[in-house]
Write a structure and sequence with these properties.
The protein is mostly helical. The chain has helices at about 10-30, 35-50, 60-90, 100-115, 120-130, 140-145, 150-165; strands spanning about 5, 55. The longest helix has about 30 residues, at about 60-90. The chain is globular.
């Protein structure tokens, strides 16, 4: 039987001591990079430490694998965002390119926005991004996505509610 309870620092410390090396090896096999594996193993234990409630741990490696897979997915999504952002920057004339500090801020904002919109249907995300990033009108979005203006409004409301309640 699995009851939810906050993981104490003591439990996480025990998990870390018993399974950190195993988890780092598991991640290294998937990433091929020992440094990235070490970073993501740390991120996994930080997620565990910050979790409000978790099931009672009967199979700690299965639990850590599940958390690590989520961390790994977020890592890959961030890499994809970074590549797309770098490609968009490469197309800008040098005179309007943002500074390194502005690039870092923009990238962090994109990552946060991606996390906020995670789980929404793809058309909802696209409609939201077309409105917020590209500045398209409802009619332009409807034409671009081949949907009605009423559907655009519903999609934008759904995305806005997700962002609002995440704050």
């Amino acid at each position: 039987m699995s009851t939810a309870h906050p993981l104490s620092h003591h439990i996480v410390e025990g998990l870390y001591s018993a399974h950190h090396r195993w988890l780092t090896t598991w991640l290294r096999r998937r990433l091929g990079c020992p440094d990235s594996a070490a970073d993501l193993a740390q991120d996994t234990f930080v997620k565990v430490l910050l979790a409000r409630d978790t099931p009672q741990l009967v199979e700690p490696r299965a639990f850590l694998t599940t958390v690590a897979r989520r961390v790994l997915c977020n890592h890959y999504r961030r890499q994809e965002l970074e590549r797309a952002y770098a490609a968009a920057l490469a197309e800008l004339p040098e005179c309007v390119a943002p500074s390194e500090e502005e690039r870092a801020i923009i990238l962090e904002t994109l990552v946060e926005l991606d996390q906020l919109l995670d789980g929404l249907p793809i058309l909802v995300k696209r409609a939201f991004l077309l409105a917020q990033v590209d500045g398209l009108t409802h009619g332009q979005i409807a034409a671009c996505l081949n949907i009605s203006i009423a559907t655009v409004k519903r999609h934008l409301n759904k995305a806005a509610l997700r962002c609002y309640f995440a704050l």
